[in-house]
Specification:
376 residues, 2 domains, globular
């Protein structure tokens, strides 16, 4: 009798995934894998039978019953019992770090970054923009492990004492042609008072972005010869328990959380017009009735780190903001076709952005932007 019960139980276990796959009788939360699952194959002809079989295998591997549960179970055991993840470095005190950044992207930049080429391309772009009265502003967004390397596990690679990206930023600091927004220096000063990155997310926290954004506005106001105060609202920090984006790369039952720091939106937002999906811009913001206080229009080519600057209250500081992202926007095309009222081009990218380095190194003089006339 016991053998029969064992055999029946074994057969049921074998067929349970198929039954779940067909009926979906057990409700399971959707697993966010940051990719598209393999679609169901379509049989077209016997000539394509091999492709059909290959597609069927891929589809089954992505859709077999209880797949989500089993993935979460395996990942939860790795994280809770062994403190490891295939996608993340698990640091102490709840700190998470992308393996792709620490193990692959930063070493690749260290090997391949052509500092001279990027610096000279930036100089060419700045000079060309100046010919039509546009000021180039550059910011490099640093990575979390640069500031919190002491929380990395021992198995994680360590950064060299002097990196190529440090040398590039030294070049930027010495350039008179650009405004260099030194986010690394601002964050080092800020972290003496509070954390500047999220523990469970890739990004800097919003209060850190606030300090950088306020510095940007103050620098540009000084360029405009402003003596009155442009940035008016003060920093108010609110705390919120959350589980950040890095935590989602571990599909587990009990994701790690943190008490994150955020900015309370205490500024006054004047009436504005907003339009989106107007390539190359993701959106355009324009004050309806700007007075003399806000700064002139700014075009931004940036990534998700700029989103923190938006949440810090950059909106009322400029009469217009044209927002473009590195993907799919191409720097050269944007420079060739800047909106005619642009006063500042803000090029923001993180320190592992190979696309940004390649674009800056290969920039030519934008065809629509005449060089400044020569002076004796």
């Amino acid at each position: 009798m016991s053998r029969a019960i064992y055999l029946i139980g074994f057969v049921l276990i074998l067929w349970l995934p198929m039954a779940q796959m067909v009926t979906g009788i057990v409700p399971l939360p959707v697993l966010d894998e940051n990719r598209k699952l393999a679609p169901a194959p379509v049989f077209t002809s016997w000539d394509g039978a091999g492709d059909y079989a290959h597609g069927a295998v891929n589809w089954f591997n992505d859709h077999f019953g209880f797949r989500e549960f089993l993935i979460r179970l395996k990942t939860q055991i790795d994280y809770s019992a062994f403190g490891m993840s295939t996608r993340l470095h698990i640091g102490d005190d709840g700190w998470l770090f992308y393996r792709s950044v620490v193990d692959t992207q930063q070493p690749f930049v260290e090997r391949t970054l052509q500092t001279d080429a990027v610096a000279e391309g930036t100089r060419r772009l700045a000079a060309a923009l100046a010919g039509r009265g546009v000021q180039l502003v550059v910011m490099v967004g640093p990575m979390k492990n640069v500031f919190y390397s002491d929380h990395l596990p021992r198995s994680a690679p360590r950064l060299p004492a002097t990196r190529q990206i440090d040398l590039l930023q030294d070049r930027f600091r010495s350039m008179k042609e650009i405004v260099f927004l030194d986010s690394a220096a601002i964050l080092r000063e800020t972290m003496k008072k509070r954390t500047v990155f999220h523990r469970t997310d890739f990004h800097w926290n919003d209060p850190a972005a606030f300090e950088v954004t306020r510095t940007l506005v103050n620098q540009l106001a000084a360029l405009e010869g402003r003596t009155e105060r442009v940035w008016e609202h003060e920093l108010e920090i609110v705390e919120r328990v959350e589980s950040g984006g890095e935590a989602t790369f571990m599909p587990i039952f009990f994701p790690p959380t943190e008490t994150g720091l955020f900015v309370k939106p205490n500024w006054t937002q004047p009436p504005y017009d907003y339009s989106d999906k107007q390539p190359p811009f993701e959106w355009t913001y324009a004050m309806k009735e700007p007075d003399a206080r806000p700064l002139p229009p700014i075009t931004v080519l940036g990534d998700s780190f700029f989103d923190g600057m938006l949440r810090s209250g950059i909106w009322p500081q400029f009469t217009k903001i044209y927002r473009a992202r590195w993907s799919p926007t191409i720097l050269q095309e944007l420079a060739d076709n800047l909106p005619p009222d642009t006063r500042y081009l803000f090029v923001e990218f993180i320190e592992t952005s190979v696309d940004a380095f390649t674009s800056l190194a290969s920039v030519r003089v934008p065809s629509a932007l005449p060089m400044a006339p020569a002076t004796e």
